[in-house]
Amino acid sequence: MALSPDAATVFQTDVYRAAYRRHFGAGKRFHTLRVRMGSQVSAIAGSDPNTQTERDSATAFLITRGHLLRQLEWWGAGIHDIGGASSDSPRAASALWREIERLAARHDGAHLAQVDARSALIGLAQSSGWQIEEAETCPVLALPGSWPNYIALLGKNMREQIRRYPKRLAKQFSVSYELARSEEQVQHALADLFRLHGKRWRARGQTGVLAPPRRQRFHQEVCRAFLWRGWLRLWTLRCDGQAACVLLCYCYAGRYYFFIGGFEPELIRWSVGTCLFARVLQQAIEEGAYEFDFLRGSEEYKYRFGAVDRAYKTLSLFHPTARGHLLRRKMQCETVFMQRLHEKFSAAHAGKSS
Predict the structure, then answer these.
(1) H helical segments located in the chain
(2) Is 239 exposed, middle or buried (0-12, 13-18, 19+ CB in 10 A)?
(3) Is-contact 47 32, C-beta < 8 A?
(4) Which of 263, 233, 248 is CA-nearest to residue 353?
(5) Helices assigned H by DSSP within 5-65
(6) Rounded to whole angstroms, how far apart are CA atoms 48 and 15?
(7) Diameter of the chain measured on Cα atoms
(8) What local confidence, expressed as pLDDT, does residue 317 receive?
(9) Is the pLDDT of residue 5 over 80?
(10) Distances from the Cα of 261 to the Cαs of 31, 67, 243, 246, 318, in angstroms?
(11) Range with the lowest mean pLDDT among 41-45, 193-197, 234-238?
């Protein structure tokens, strides 16, 4: 099944956006732009309509950030790894882009990050004189129809590891693989995830991206909502009853997303990450998913599982005014800071599945 680069993602659903707005909406203005060919454009500030689009239609969700310097960006920027808009046709995408430009004209600048390089928005932005820059790649694994077929695609060393490591682990510990299926199980699994993820960061004298209470409350809300819609895949590997590795994934429209994980550093020699990833990938294939998106970060373990890079772009436009120039410099500093932070975060994950 081919993935449309302009298809809606799990991060554009009404559930995810509503949670983002509740937890991170202070000081921001929210916009929904919707085009239905043959009808009027709906540009509704602060609305939260159904995300299902009709034939030959397009939708974008954006926010205004800042008061002195007004910046336009994707709804959810800074939390999720994929931006962009959904559209059913090039004609609808073109009409939607005109509405994005009209909205951007009321700002000092626009910074639309992490857009799939295959998206129709890239060419439209380039023709409009926007700056197009490389964004961080997202390694993606195309899933075959069966687990044996997947194993056959791997390199010899990885094939042996996936077969041998779980057996080795089971000889040393009492092992269980648990998929959270109730709110109580979600609560316990998230508590383990926050603890394990933070444990490695604290060893480096830092707190980690999951440490802030507001972020934890956000993920708790999203996971509860996704659980009842069948979109949550929150897995825990336990050794002798204790959480050794937790992987937070989502499954939406046949596509898996690996959002974040944590593992017990003291068990790194037992390759608990490889063991749990193998179980999650097998489950994804058996469910009929066609793609496993590892999201941002070029950590080596993703490629050992067979992922290949998918290119992303960032679209920017800053107005030739004093405020526009100041916003450009501000965004350049923020981008450098976030890149360094993510590089450090990625390095902290280097041993996850070894």
Answers:
(1) 14-24, 90-104, 120-127, 147-153, 156-172, 183-202, 213-229, 272-287, 300-304, 322-348
(2) buried
(3) yes
(4) 263
(5) 14-24
(6) 10
(7) 66
(8) 95
(9) yes
(10) 31, 35, 12, 5, 36
(11) 41-45
Smallest CA-to-CA distance from 235 within 270, 190, 266 is with: 190
**Cα distance between the two ends of the chain:** 31
- Tell me how far apart the alpha carbons of residues 49 and 7 are, in angstroms, rounded to a whole number: 17
Q: Average pLDDT of 222-227? A: 98
* Residue 207 structure tokens: 């707190």
Instruction: Single out the residue of 238, 227, 264, 233 nearest to residue 248, CA to CA.
Output: 233
The burial of 10, by beta-carbon neighbours within 10 Å (0-12 exposed, 13-18 middle, 19 or more buried), is given as buried
User: pLDDT tens digit string along 146-177?
Assistant: 999 999 999 999 999 999 999 999 999 999 99
For 71-114, the three-class secondary structure string (H helix, E strand, C coil) is EEEECCECCECCCCCEECCHHHHHHHHHHHHHHHCCCCEEEEEE
Residue 141 · residue 153 · CB < 8 Å: no
Q: Identify the residue whose tokens are 């209470």.
A: 213
Which residues are registered as beta bridge partners of 80? 77
Domains and CATH numbers, the chain: 10-137+311-319 (3.40.630), 140-308 (3.40.630.30)
The rounded distance, in Å, linking the Cα atoms of 187 and 220 is: 7
Specify whether the CB–CB gap between 254 and 289 falls below 8 A. yes
Provide the token pair at 166. 């779980």
Q: Which two tokens stand for residue 77?
A: 């920027």
Q: Which of these, 275, 282, 201, 287, lies nearest to 238 by C-alpha position?
A: 275
Distances (CA, A) of 151 to 5, 7, 158, 185, 293: 27, 29, 9, 30, 18
pTM: 0.88
CA-nearest of 83, 70, 67, 71 to 20 is 83
Residue type, 186: V
User: Are 220 and 187 in contact, with CB atoms under 8 Å apart?
Assistant: yes
> Which residues, 6 or more positions from 267, have their beta carbon under 8 angstroms from its beta carbon?
239, 244, 245
